[in-house]
Amino acid sequence: MASVPPGVDLCKIPAGRPPAGVTPNLTNPESLDAVTYSVCLIMTVWAVSFATARVYVNWHKLKLADYFMIIATILTITYTALILTLAPYNRHQWNVPACWFTGKYIKTIYAQVTLVGPVLFFSKCAIFLMFRQLFEVHRSIQICVWIGMVATFLIYFPSIPLSAIFEAPRRGQSWEDLLRSLSAGNGLKLVYWGIVQGSCSVALDLYIFVMPLPILSRLHLPFAKKMQLLAVFGTALIGVAASVIALVYRIELLGNDDSTWQQACLAVCVVAENNVAIVVGSMPAFANFMRLHVAELPTIRSLRSKLWSGSSNDKSGFGSSGEVANPVATFGSPQPRKPAAYYELTESAIMRSQFTTVHEEGVVQKSTGQNGNESGNGIVRTMDIFQQSRRRDEPQSTDHLV
C-alpha cells in the first residue's frame, strides 16, 4: 500500500496480488464467514454449557481449578468476539479492498495475539488442577501436574511481551505506520514464534491426553464403565486435532501472499482449541451434573423405562415397568458380587485411598495411605462361615469355625 499514488481510491484496489489467471472480486467473493460464525457459535455454546454445569455442581465448594475455568471461559468468549469482528476479512487477500486495512484492524490483531496465550494458559492449567483433585492419592500424577503447569506457563505467557514488542507501535509511531511496516514484510518474527508455540501446544495436548490413561487402565471396573471413563477423558483428542491443524496453518503463514485467508483458517482452529480445553476440563463435573440432575428428570426416566420395558428380567435386571428388580436377600442365599474395586466419577474425586479385594475364602480389606501405598496399621482378617441345619429333637451342635 505504500507504493499507491496519492489520491487513488483504495477501496477499488485489492490488498493483494492474485495468482495468474485469477481476477479479484471485491463485491461478492468466496468467504469463510459462514464457517467462522458456525464454528464460533457451536464451540462457544458447547464450552459455556459445560463450564456452567461445572460451576453449578461445585458452587458451594469452588476450588482453584474452578476459578481458573471461569477465567478461561470469560477470556475465550472475549477472544471469540474479536475473531467475529474480523469476519469480513475472511476472504482471499486479493478480494479484500486495500482501504479495509487500517489502524483499527491492526489493533484487533494485536488484541487477538495478546489474548490467546492467557486463554490457553488458564484453560489447560484448569485441566491439570482437575487431575490433581481426581488423582490426589498418586504422587506421580502430582509431579506430572506441576510439570505440566510450568510448561503451560512457558508456552503461552511469552506471547504477551512478544506481541508488545512486535505487534505494537514504537514510541512516536502510529498504528498505521506499524501496518505499513508489517505489510513490507517485517512481521515474520512473531510468525516464527507462533510455529514454536504451536509445536509445543501439540506436545502439551498429547501430554494432557496420555497422563490419566495409566491410572484409568488399572481401575478394577467393568469394561463398559472403563470405556465410559476413557470416553470422558478422551475428548482431549479433539483438542490435539485442533492444535495440529492450527500448527499447519501457522507454518503456511510463512511467505504466504494470502495471509487473510490463512489467518481466518487459523482463527477457526484456535477457537476450537480454546473451547475444547474448557470442555475437557469440565467433562467430569458435567458427567456428574447429568447423572444427578438430568438422568432423574421424569421425561428421561420415562424414556429409560420404555427402552428397558422389552428386555428380559434375567439379563437386564429391570422389570416390565422399568423398575429395578431387587430380590429379597436371606441369610445363606448367594449375594451378588461387586467388582474388586469400584470408583464413582464425581466432581471432586474418582480415586480413593481405600479399596476392597474379594477372595474365595472371605474378604480381605486393605487400607492405603495418602500416597497410595499400603499402610502398616491396616487390619487384615479372613473369616470362613459355615451354615448348619438340625431338627428340633436333635441336640445343639457346638462345632463351629470362626
From TrEMBL:
Chain ranges of the Rhodopsin domain: 58-290
Instruction: Write down the InterPro entries for this protein, in alphabetical order.
Output: Rhodopsin_dom_fungi (IPR049326), SAT4-like (IPR052337)
Q: Which GO terms describe its cellular component?
A: membrane
Chain ranges passing through the membrane: 34-57, 64-89, 109-131, 143-166, 190-217, 229-249
* One Pfam family this sequence matches: Fung_rhodopsin
The primary site where this protein sits is membrane
Keywords assigned: Membrane, Transmembrane, Transmembrane helix
Q: Which family does it belong to?
A: Belongs to the SAT4 family.
Name of the protein this chain belongs to: Rhodopsin domain-containing protein
Q: Species name for this entry?
A: Bombardia bombarda
